Amino acid sequence: MKKNKIFLLTEPCDNHFGIFSNAIQMAKNIKQARAYIIKFQHHILDEETLKKFTKSSNFKVDLYSFLKKYSLPTENCLKIKNI
User: Which of 12, 52, 61, 73 sits between 20 and 30 A of 32, alpha carbons compared?
Assistant: First the structure.
């Protein structure tokens, strides 16, 4: 019988709300849970998101404003990579 490995992919998105220490803790928890891949999204807002986009019913602000406020800077994303 051949044993197959399970590769767990996690995507915490922007649930850190722009707080770098939250993102670090999430990454450490995910690593401890033995996930194989952690995917944090990095946004280049003006290239991927319209400033005047209708907000969804589950958000109090539009997507552009939310991502502008809560996205991590590139240098923080690179630091997470080395955890």
Answer: 73
Contact 30/10 with Cβ under 8 angstroms?
Answer: yes
What is the reported pTM? 0.74
Q: Could you tell me the residue ranges of all domains in the chain?
A: 9-81
- The single-letter code of the amino acid at 12 is P
User: Which of the four pLDDT bands, split at 50, 70 and 90, describes residue 37?
Assistant: confident
Nearest partner of 38 among 72, 61, 2, 1, judged by Cα? 72
Cα–Cα distance for residue pair 64/50, rounded to 1 Å:
7
Question: Alpha-carbon distance 74 to 83, whole Å?
Answer: 15
Percentage of the chain exceeding pLDDT 70: 94
> Are residues 64 and 45 in contact, defined by beta-carbon separation less than 8 angstroms?
yes
Please state, in angstroms and rounded to a whole number, the distance separating the CA atoms of residues 13 and 20: 13
